[in-house]
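TA notes. Do not distribute before section.
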Amino acid sequence: MTIQQYQEKCITTATYPRFGNGNYIYPFLGLSGEFGEFYEKQDNYIYDEIEQKKEMGDVMWYLVMICYELGIDMERLRDTEESINTFDVGYKLKDGFLLISKFAEYLKKVERDGNDISSIQVTNFVREIYKRLMLYKKFRGWELDEILQMNIDKLQDRKERNVLHGSGDNR
C-alpha cells in the first residue's frame, strides 16, 4: 500500500471537527498524544510488538491527515527512508518530543498572529516525525504496509460499529 492509498483510506474514517477545511490543529493535537503513547509502548519493559505497531499506525494516521488538511504530498517523504541509520534509535524517538514541542510553539504563533501556515515548515516537521517512525520500523524489522493495513482495518471496523468516537484502544 502506498502512502497515497493509505491517505485515501484514512480520509474515509475522519470524523473530526472541520474535517477537510484546512483544520490541521486537530490532527496535530492527535499526533502529539499518539506519539507519546507510541513512545510509552516502546519504552515498556515488556515488548509487545502488536501494541507498538497499532500505536505507530495511529501516529501515521494523524501525520497523513495533517498533510491532507494542508495539501502536502506524503509520497515525497518516502525518500527519507533511504537515508535512515538505526544508530541510537532511542535518542531519535525521544527527540521527536522536542520536535513536537517546537512545532506546537510555531502553530501557536501562527494562530495568535493570524499568519498563514508555511507548507515548508509543516513538510519539514512531518518529514522529521516520519523519519523517526521509519527508523524505529527499520530497527524492529517491520514492514510499513503491514502497519498501515492494521491501522486501516482497525479504523474501518470501528467505523462499521459506529465507535470511531470515544477513547480507549480496544473499543
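Switch to the second chain here.
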Amino acid sequence: MTRLVTLLLVVVTAAVTVLAQGPARSPDVIFVPTPQEVVDGMLKMAQITPTDVLYDLGSGDGRIPITAAVRYGIRAVGVEIDPIRVREANENARVAGVADKVRFLNQDLFTTDIREATVVTLYLLPSLNLRLRPKLNQEVRRGARVIRSEEHTSELQSLRHLVCRLLLEKK
C-alpha cells in the first residue's frame, strides 16, 4: 500500500511540475514541424559559412538549428516559448550529437536578444513575420540573412529570401 501511495505522489508531483512549467504566455501559434525539405531549402538559401551563428525563432523541436549544426558545423540557437518543446529540442540535439553546438532558450521570440545572429530562420505564420519586422530591423546586423517560409507548406517555392539590412535598413 505504501508503494502505491509513494508512486501516486511521484506521478502527481511530476504532473504538477509539468503543468507549472508551461509557457510564460500562450504561444502565438500551435506547433507545426517544419518539413525536412523546407529546412534543407532554407539552410541552402542562407548560404551558411563556418563562422555563422544561426538563430531560429519559434524553434519547436529544434530541427532547423540541429540540422544546421550537423550539416554545417555552426553554432545555433533556438528560441521557443514552450518549455516542453525546449526539452524535446535539447534531447534531439543530444541524440544528433550536437548538444555542444546548439542551445535552446525557453524565451519569447519577441523579447530575446538576437543581435549575435548572422542567420535568422523563421517558419512562422505571415502575421508573425510582420510583427517581427521591427525587431529584425532593430537587432539584425548588416549582412545577416533572414530566411523565412511564407506559408506552412512543403513547397520550396513558398520560401522567400530576404537580406535584412538591404530591405529593412534605416536610412
